[in-house]
Specification:
The structure is a single chain. The protein is of the alpha+beta class. The chain has helices at about 5-20, 20-40, 55-60, 80-95, 100-110, 180-200, 205, and strands at about 1-5, 40-50, 65-75, 120-125, 135, 140, 155-160, 165-170. The strands form three sheets. Strands 1-8-7-4 form a four-stranded mixed sheet, covered by helices on one side. Strands 2-3 form a two-stranded antiparallel ribbon. Strands 5-6 form a two-stranded antiparallel ribbon. Helix 1 packs across helix 6, helix 2 (about 20-40) packs across helix 4 (about 80-95) and helix 2 (about 20-40) crosses helix 6 (about 180-200). The mean pLDDT is about 90.
Length: about 210
């Protein structure tokens, strides 16, 4: 699906006014949307990071992505602006103290269960890094980000910046969620994001009512 340019612009402006990032703003709205969708108020998502914090890795070719779990709690009595502030502080702190995911799982003592991902079962990602154009004397090409289309977790929301608007790809295990379930989640997410951009001082309870 697509988040229209108007809602995307309002989300970027809200992030700017709040001293947050677009990622934190989208994640905060996503948490509220999941709460409105299934009632969960303690939500942990896994998000990919470049994992190139060391100089030796920066000079290495290849895919060096890592995963950072981000945990947030949704309080219906709080206003969205406060929830966004808490979400942004949590993401900054989590990224600053990130460790290899396998080491984190061992430190937490998470038991291994077939078909279950440890720590989190929801993936949330924003792809907004510049995509280079490739030019040859008689040929031009531009790379584009595309989802694999394969759900590796119970649920995933992958957002890509496309000029003024945002593309949203939903991935879900079809033994857990129907297409109608995901359509409803997308509707709630889009409505929540639009509402928070217009009225960030509203209580969360009012946003999802």
């Amino acid at each position: 699906t697509h988040i229209p340019a108007e809602s995307a612009t309002e989300a970027r402006e809200l992030a700017r006014r709040s001293g947050a990032t677009l990622f934190s703003t989208l994640l905060a709205a996503f948490q509220v949307a999941v709460n409105g969708w299934n009632g969960a108020d303690d939500i942990t998502v896994g998000t990919p990071v470049a994992n190139r914090t060391k100089q030796a890795v920066r000079e290495t070719m290849g895919y060096c992505s890592g995963i950072v779990p981000l945990r947030g709690k949704v309080d219906h009595a709080s206003v969205f602006a406060d929830h966004l502030r808490a979400t942004h502080e949590m993401t900054v702190d989590s990224f600053a103290n990130a460790m290899p995911f396998a080491e984190l799982v061992r430190a937490l003592g998470e038991p291994a269960s077939p078909g279950v991902n440890p720590v989190f079962e929801i993936r949330f990602a924003l792809q907004n890094h510049p995509i280079p154009e490739v030019s040859f004397p008689t040929l031009g090409a531009k790379m584009s980000m595309r989802s694999t289309g394969t759900p590796r977790f119970q649920l995933a929301c992958e957002i890509t910046e496309e000029r003024d608007w945002l593309e949203v790809v939903w991935l879900a295990r079809d033994d857990l969620f129907s297409p109608d379930d995901i359509t409803e989640l997308d509707r709630i997410f889009q409505r929540t994001l639009a509402a928070t951009g217009r009225a960030p001082a509203d209580r969360i309870a009012d946003l999802i009512s």
